[in-house]
Design a protein that fits this description.
- By secondary structure, the protein is an alpha/beta fold.
- It has 9 helices and 14 strands.
- The protein has a 9-stranded parallel β-sheet. Strands 4-6-8 form a 3-stranded parallel β-sheet, with no helix packed on it.
- α7 links the parallel β12 and β13.
- The chain is elongated, with a radius of gyration of 25 Å.
- 23% of the residues are buried.
- Pfam families: F-box, LRR_At5g56370.
Amino acid sequence: MAMTDSCKRLAVGGDKLDRLTDLPINVIHQIQDHMSIEDAAKMSVLSREWRYVWVSNPKLAFGAQFYKKRKLSTTTDVISTIVSQHHGVIKKFHSIIHSSQHSVVDEWMLLLSGNGLTDLTLHNLTNSKAPYRLPSCVYGVELERLVLWNCIFRPPCSFRGFHKLKRLNLKQVSFELDISTASLWMPNLERLNFMQCSGLRHLNIYAPELLLLTFYGCGTDALKPGPFMDCVKLESAGVSFQEEVSQNRQDKAVKLTNLLSSWPNISFLLLDRYFLKLLLLVLKWMGFPRASAD
């Protein structure tokens, strides 16, 4: 009797496993997206069919929880193994990185750049000794989403922009540009966020489809009106200089005011007190005696 009950349980369990195995591979991958790397790997012992399912998942994410459970050297080896032994395309790669990993991260980027990557996030820890320099192979990838934190953006001379990019989020990114790479064409870009970035003074990004633009803590010289005056589809914008504005910057104030007037579809606008001081400088420059930037 006990053996019969045991057989029934095995039969029921096997039936459930068969039904799970019969799911489309993309559905199984979506289930794995809600698991840790370890749990997804453990699924490979369920059956022969499941042995390589987890290593074909096109989305790889190594966040804080992944790093918290093991030593840095171990995480590096684990990620290297997963990337090098992966089957099929890797469309999404998100990872925290440390300065001691930079040379290995270069190897990851080389493997990923030729494997269908469209979504890349690299969070180089701010307590790292050095920012991560994005390797040249990444600039040739047809990315649709790019998020960089504490990195150096120095594209090769042949780089003209990410033509398929839709979202670009940059925090504490240093731009190292020359004349050949200062003007970037991004015809499909819809969201552009700069936070505490440097080296933007000579950057020109042409993005006619842009819907959202934010500048935070990048300095008054970071926002160049010229290229963004053509963003007539812009709906949301935020500008926060996080620094005092010199009283002799009337020319800058006029240009920024003209920039706002060139966005006919703007529905949300966030300005800090330093930007408002620039607007007051315009009024004062135009001869309004009661306008004050104090």
